[in-house]
Structure formats: C-alpha cells, structure tokens
Amino acid sequence: MDVKDFTKQSGFLRADDIKTRPNGRGFFVILQEGELVDNERFKKIDLHLRGDFYGKEIIFNCNKTNARKIEETTKSSDTRDWVGKVLALETVKTRTGDGKVVDGMNIYEVLNELPTETNITPAPAQAVTTPATTPGTTTTTVAPVRDLSLPRWL
User: Looking at residue 48, what is its pLDDT?
Assistant: First the structure.
C-alpha cells in the first residue's frame, strides 16, 4: 500500500498539486470570503481563501503578492468581492527566509469563469524542417506553436 497521498494531506493547496496538473498549471475557484489567520509558527498573519481545486475543497494560503494581484484585477480589497473568481495558478521557484529554494505558487491571471472546451481554441501546428543525420536528407517535424492571443495556461 502506498501512503504517499495520505501523508501529504494537509487541507491546503500545495505547489505539488499544481505541478502535477497538465502544463504544470491549474485553476482554483474561490468559494468563500477570505479569513485572516494568526500563524504562530512564523509569527505572521496568513490570508486563507477556501475554494475548489478540481473537485476538492481546499485552502489556498494567499501571500501578499498574490493578494495584491487579486485586488488589482478585481479592483476590490474586500475578499467578499473575490468569491466566484478563478485563480489561474502556476509554480515558481522562490527563496525562503533561510535561503532555501522551494516551489511556490503564483497567480498569473484572475478570471471571471473557468475556461471550457468550447471557449478554448487549440494552438495551430507548425512544420519545422531540420537537417537529418543522413547527408542530403531533411526531417520534418510538426510541433504545436502557442498562439499568443490565447491565455498563458494553454
């Protein structure tokens, strides 16, 4: 029996939860207004946002940078106005206070609704021709090219 999932349960969204999603990005839907919580371990105040991450109700521990991003996008500092917003998340490398490099979570976009298959256009494919290992021949590879008009998570 593998207890990995059991031992990593915390009730909080973790960078690993996002990294295991396709493209290493994910969506978090805010379900309730935020709650300021005293973090005695690190002697600071945390902002907890309760929400949905792919069918799992979980808490996003929102840092000040991410809170500012939501505030700027929604044009409101009142977390009641954030309910229903969708946070498009990615992981980034960050340094802790003691200098250790760890994975952190970054909000790169705040949306009004979850993207659906009907409003996502796949990126076009582009043929790339490169020299082959045999002289006088070429190899053509078709690779997707990201359409810059689409949101970054695609």
Answer: 96
- Find, among 54, 107, 58, 51, the residue nearest to 84 by Cα: 51
Phi, psi (5° rounding) for residue 25?
Answer: -135, 160
Residue 21 has pLDDT above 80, yes or no: yes
What is the reported pTM? 0.69
76 backbone dihedrals φ, ψ, rounded to 5°: -150, 135
Q: Which residues of 59-93 are buried (b: 16+ CB within 10 A; e: fewer)?
A: bbbbbeebbebbbebbeeeebeebeebbbbbbbee
pLDDT tens figures, 48-86: 999 999 999 999 999 999 999 999 999 999 999 999 999
> What domains can you pick out in the chain, each with its CATH number?
4-117 (2.40.50)
Say if strands 86-95 and 101-111 run parallel, antiparallel, or are unpaired: antiparallel
Residue 42 has pLDDT above 60, yes or no: yes
Residue 35 is which amino acid? Answer: E
Q: Beta strands of 9-100 (E only): which ranges? A: 25-30, 35-39, 44-53, 56-62, 86-95
